[in-house]
Design goal:
The protein is of the alpha+beta class. The protein contains 4 helices and 8 strands; from the N terminus they run ααββββββαββα. A 6-stranded mixed β-sheet has the order 1-2-3-5-6-8. The chain has a two-stranded antiparallel ribbon with strand order 4-7. The longest helix has 18 residues, at 47-64.
């Protein structure tokens, strides 16, 4: 929805901004998120709120596919899905073409579900805590300094999944197959 600018000073400033635009965004440059049903997520600036959106997307997707999804009674995991304690990590695709999953901690959960959303695609990995401990937790600190020892992160380029993530999903259907197997094992 467009709002007309009534203040003449703001109109003048907007005109100057219009002349500067091509210095920063080349004419004809396309926004890869234009028209995407998930583009609105990029406008959510708080990482905590984006994380909540990711949790809601995963919980809704799993429930819609018939998996039992409940909130976790403590703050050590985000949800209990098909009887497993799950930490949910969320990323939108960065301009560099990677997803970055952040704030990974050594807490009380069985698996992390890492959902990445691109303009017109999505990817998902279901990773056991043991695999995260082997490759992420204790290996790739997110913060440095004395207090930077409790959070970790990793990046994934969907077209070049790291070897340690192969077999843990990728396409949504692949990730869901892993989740569906949980219901058969209980």
């Amino acid at each position: 929805m467009s709002h007309p600018i009534e203040d003449p000073e703001v109109q003048a400033l907007a005109a100057i901004a219009g002349t500067l635009k091509n210095d920063y965004i080349p004419e004809g440059a396309n926004d890869p998120w234009e028209g995407s049903p998930t583009a609105w997520i990029l406008r959510v600036r708080s990482s905590r709120r984006r994380g909540k959106i990711g949790e809601q997307l995963v919980a809704g997707w799993c429930a819609a596919r018939g998996l039992d999804v409940v909130s976790c009674a403590d703050q050590e995991a985000d949800r209990v899905i098909a009887g497993r304690r799950v930490e949910i990590k969320f990323s939108t695709l960065w301009e560099s073409g990677v997803y970055t999953f952040q704030q990974i901690r050594d807490q009380n959960y069985d698996y992390a579900i890492c959902l990445g959303v691109s303009p017109f695609d999505a990817h998902c990995w279901v990773v056991s805590k043991e695999v995260l401990q082997d490759h992420v937790i204790g290996h790739t600190p997110q913060h440095t300094g004395k207090t930077g020892r409790d959070t970790f992160w990793f990046t994934v380029r969907p077209s070049a999944t790291p070897p340690w993530l192969v077999g843990h999903g990728g396409r949504l259907a692949d990730a869901f197959e892993i989740l569906r197997r949980w219901t058969r094992k209980r």
